[in-house]
Amino acid sequence: MAIQGCRSAKLLQRLAVLTPLLNPRPAAASDHCNPVSLQVLRYLHHVGDGVLVPEVGRERSSRNRQQAGSCGRLPALGGVRYARSAALPAVGAKVAKAEEMIEVSVDGQSVQIPKGMTVLQACELVGVSIPRFCYHSRLSIAGNCRMCLVEVEKTPKPVASCAMPALPGMKIKTDTPLCKKAREGVMEFLLLNHPLDCPICDQGGECDLQDQSMVFGSDRGRFTETKRTVLDKNLGPLVKTIMTRCIQCTRCVRFAKEIAGVEDLGVLGRGGTEEIGTYVENLMTSELSGNVIDVCPVGALTSKPYAFTARSWELKSTESIDVTDAVGSNVRIDSRGPEVMRILPRLHEEVNEEWISDKARFSYDGLKRQRLSEPMIRHPDGRLEAVSWHDALESVAEAAHRVKPEEMAGIAGKLSDAESMMALKDFLNKMGCERIWSEGDGKSANVDLRSSFLLNTGIASLEYADLCLLIGTQLRWEAPLVNARLRKAVRSSRAKVASIGPPTDLNYPHQHLGTGSETLLKIAEGRHPFCAEFGRAQRPAVIVGSGLLEHSDKSAVMAALEIIVEQGKVVKDDWNGFNVLMLNAAQAAGRDLGLVQGARAHSSEIKFLYLLGADELTPADIPANAFVVYQGHHGDRSAYRANIILPGTAYTEKEGTYENTEGRTQQTSPAVPTVGDSRDDWKIIRALSEVAGVRLPYDTANGLRARMLAVSPNLLRVDDVESPVELPFPLKNQSPSAVVLSSFPKTVENFYMTDAITRASRTMAQCTA
């Protein structure tokens, strides 16, 4: 009590000093609660606790809630969210009050801003750019670089704009001699110990310190002593460290703790010996670790695979999407000539914000290894011989005509685009075959309702869930960025998360209820203590792993899920909390295009198998006497079994349509030329149809997309998500009591190697090791 009282007394003393400066207006006698004093108290409370102040943004922007730190839920007031304090509503409370606006002046220009914004945000709203190193819109406020100093009227010295809340009537000046002198002094201090590494630094040309020292720095320095040096840290095969360049902005520390959920980095020492590193000598183990390269404003943390390979001004940038998982993260592919040099994240608030997984960022070296560059035919002695396209297509057509239609089958692989899947389905249907499916779906996928296989809540909206039950999914390894959204819900609104399936470290507090269908059955029958949580939840969510849909007793499992969804009120008028998490980039589009076994499909032995980049088949899955055609871009597992190999293009070399796990249509763009004699996948199938005598009715990409429009119109509405129907899935006649009691299997054995590209990547092999 004495300590608490002492702290309160210190706060009151600070308040007594600050209030006259921040609130020159005399208080009215009728003021029961001075809003300015309350604002200062709130500011002191957050600064004292090391927690950030509020952020402004769009209603669904993630940056607002992320900045709450450990303050709890941020109730929405229109587009503004506030960090919680004693004066703010509790978790889940609905605030009916209209958004309160205040007026401030920035460089003589008056502007109305929402109450609770910081000075830095108020300046940005006017269009005035404030320099900063430590401030990041998605991280908590540290306020330790002091580069964002501005002058505020009636304050004795410049204030750090990132940590100071804007107050009514505040007059902010950003371009005065005092501001320029203060920033010049801060820049001089930052450069005291910074080495002159610019000619050999990988950050050169993209460095915030370079840019800001040119604009705000002096033309000379007064420091003549010996610069200090810091030992480099070994963070693993992905992140290269040159810690002598570090300016202690702590962005990487805050990212690791708040976003990635691993406390691998921290600040050690004080004063001149302060440095950032690992507490003990260990590697950075997060699946999002590469993002510290992007948040680092200097060259202290750079990409190890990219080191000394290119300069930023030499590269051609292409906007595309990532296909290593079903999230569809937006990326920028930087290439030089025929080679992809690096992959960086691209901002998309609804999908990946500005982060990507390590697999998406670093697996690009697999694009130039084990590539298939020309058509090949396997001779009876097992030897592969390179042939012309005409000979290869004629051989495939002859083999297809030698078997009955019911003995044919086609499988689309994990990385297939919608255009090639549409062409494959049309070709095999014209040949009379209805046995075609997408890899990972099994042979009896349900495609009647889109809401039965999509993430209906939406990736961004998962942040609003206050309860989440994960069933048969290793969310952290299947979709790291969806897991990051759920972590945000746990941190900001204390959402409760429970899981049924293989034990997984989700990097946030969660309850592991069991490993299999026995626990699921108990919840469905109301015999499990967790059932009470559904009654208390306002916005419950259930996320089902797509691997569960290949379970031996899928119908009984889905019947149990239906009962849980109905009794837990997971689906409401304004909330659909039933979600299926797709595992592969091609799955959602494949189901929309109807890549499932038709009603007339036979179960006879397969004698002609067309694999469109499908590499997850084991030798036992392919009959010994089957004629196998493999069309793909890597000489991966299935290429060793193929009778004929047709070289296709990777996602970086073609314009392809993909649909992510929430049903959002996105497109890749060609960043580099094709390898060797390879061709676009749909063009290969179109040429094959003509050789086989069943010519497809389209010759151009637009003609093919017109066909896709007739089958699934949503695949042509790029970056759009159709609202799902209310029913999560069609009613089942199967009783949940018929479920076979067994454990749910692991769907991802090795996060770093899940497809042909990542298995060919040397960097991913190092991460695995």
What does this structure look like?
InterPro entries: 2Fe-2S_ferredoxin-like_sf, 2Fe-2S_ferredoxin-type, Mopterin_OxRdtase, Mopterin_OxRdtase_4Fe-4S_dom, NADH_UbQ_OxRdtase_75kDa_su_CS, NADH_UbQ_OxRdtase_ferredoxin, NADH_UbQ_OxRdtase_Gsu, NADH_UbQ_OxRdtase_Gsu_4Fe4S-bd. It holds the Pfam family Fer4_Nqo3. It comes from Sphagnum jensenii. With about 775 residues, the protein is of the alpha/beta class. About 25% of the residues lie in helices and about 15% in strands. The strands form nine sheets. A seven-stranded mixed sheet has the order 17-16-29-28-27-18-19. The chain has a five-stranded mixed sheet with strand order 5-4-8-6-7, sandwiched between helices. It has a five-stranded parallel sheet with strand order 22-21-20-23-26. Strand 30 (about 655-660) and strand 31 (about 665) form a beta hairpin. The radius of gyration is 29 Å and the shape is globular. Residues about 1-95 have low confidence and may be disordered.
What structural keywords apply?
NAD; Mopterin_OxRdtase; 4Fe-4S; 769 residues; alpha/beta; 7-stranded mixed sheet; 5-stranded mixed sheet
